[in-house]
Amino acid sequence: MKRNILQLLCATGLFILLPVACNDLLHQEPQGEWTAKDNKSGSHASDVFTMYAKVRGFHVTTGNTALAVHNVRCEDIEKGSTATDGVAWAPMFDDFNYSAAQSMLQTYWTENYAIVHIANKVLAAIEEAGSEEQLSEGDLFNKGEAHFYRAFIYFNLVRAFGEVPLIDFPLTDAVQANVAKSPVDKIYELIDADLTAAAQLLPPRWDAVFTGRLTWGAAKSLHAKTYMQRNNWTTMHALAKEVIDAGIYDLNTPFNKVFREDGENCSESIWELQCTATPTLPGSNDIGSQYAAVQGCRGAGDWNLGWGQHTPTQILADAFEPGDPRKDETLLYFLKASDDPATCPANAPWGEKPIANDLVINPYYNKKAYTNPALRAEFTKGGYWVNVRMIRYSDVLLMAAEAANELNYNAPALDYLEQVRSRARGGNPAVLPAVTTTDQNELRNKIRHERRIELAMEWDRFYDLVRWGTAPQVLGAAGKSYLPKHQYLPLPQAEVDKSNGVLIQNPNY
Asked: What is the C-alpha to C-alpha distance for residues 79 and 68, in angstroms, rounded to an integer?
């Protein structure tokens, strides 16, 4: 299913630099129909699908740049690998020794803004083409996709840096991008407008050939997350409830299947980045990603699955409730090369026991990024085909639960929470007992715990701690040198320098 959108790219000529890869894709088992008469692609499909590819890019979502910016700063995730690997960035993101000259900041900034500029180009061109009544169905979809991606990128930037330049117009000259920072509220105004527009323009579902394209549910869910970051309980609750009440998504896929290859684009998937590999391009970032490789077991030979970075901590391991099946589906146990194989509990799929380098410093790997050995043998050990789950239905249920509790809607909050816990317990009534408390503070803590466990190793833990106001306490207890100023990263110093005083560095840097 995930290859359908890539088949579409080939058919529309959007992968003109990859003729062999397209041929491989088109000779796979048919998974949908596409014809030149299909008007769902729109006249701006080339730019729009470039955005799809760039959002999947190493520095935006799938590589150690993005994982460091968004994830490693929390207590549940660490750089991992060996002590000498990643020394240029580990102190900054693992322990808040921020430096405005750190190279990851520059690449993250540049690659995110590159997508903003494409979105602006598409939206301006569609605006010039006429009113929405005059546009084709495909152009309306393209407009919705451009609004969504611009909102997503600014959500990335505003969470990471706070005030950033708000560029909502197409550039004809690079000097036009040299603008001052806008207040956080203004950034969110654009995000709100973009996601409102995207939800109006995107369909609730796509035909199979378009699997992976953005939907109404993705726009509504992302919008709920942006209000969650602002602790706006009323709007957060309303948006999450819209997605729930639509009946499009469910938790029918067992938790131990969601992150396997055969769980991709399942009924829980709201937004999922589509990746693939082919025999001729088994390890290509053009059609896949390095998400699994960055997090793969750092071993030798058959167990050289990747860089071994972005790994769970013992703190996370200790946070699971007794018997919670999600622990063994989140933490990947492994041997070191010098270990006795009998000492390692085997919890890798397919009965494997990964063997890592003796020098690795992490106690676990991220099982949510583990790959199928049959596909490793067919393509590459790097796992370029692994889809990236961006928003899952359980996240929306937990957003609804949190907002409902803050609004004193006890019964709905308990119901949404129980739906997540019920799926997690996998039919075993002896674990994960239903939460029944109606005390707001107790229920608040239960819901926060559930977000931490259900969504472990995904995208929001650091930002959850920040918005709850618990980051200094929690990260300090974990031995991290966090101060309130560390909520925001410094702006890339090179951007500040070349602006000639227009772009002002964040305070305290």
From this structure: 8
DSSP for 224-285 reads HHHHHHTT-HHHHHHHHHHHHHTT---S-S-HHHHTSGGGTT-TTEEEEE-----SSSTT-T
Q: In which residue are the tokens 């249920």 written?
A: 397
Q: pLDDT of 398-408, one tens digit each? A: 999 999 999 99
CA 385 to CA 282: how far, in whole Å? 8
Asked if 352 and 333 count as a contact pair (C-beta separation under 8 A), the reply is no
Decide: 328 and 346 in contact? Cβ < 8 Å.
Answer: no
Q: What angle do CA 295, 296, 301 make, to 5 degrees?
A: 155
H-helix segments, 56-136: 64-67, 90-95, 103-129
How far is the C-alpha of 84 from the C-alpha of 88, rounded, in Å?
A: 9
Residues 2 and 277: beta-carbon distance below 8 Å = no
Distance separating alpha carbons of residues 156 and 172, to the nearest angstrom: 24
Token output for 252: 């029918």
The two structure tokens encoding residue 163: 């005030």
Rounded-to-integer distance, Cα 281 and Cα 285, Å: 9
Q: How far is CA 5 from CA 30, 34, 45, 52, 214, in A?
A: 12, 10, 12, 10, 11
Q: What is the mean pLDDT of the chain?
A: 91
What is the pTM for the complete model shown? 0.92
- Identify the three-state secondary structure at position 131: coil
Neighbours of 83 (CB within 10 A): 11
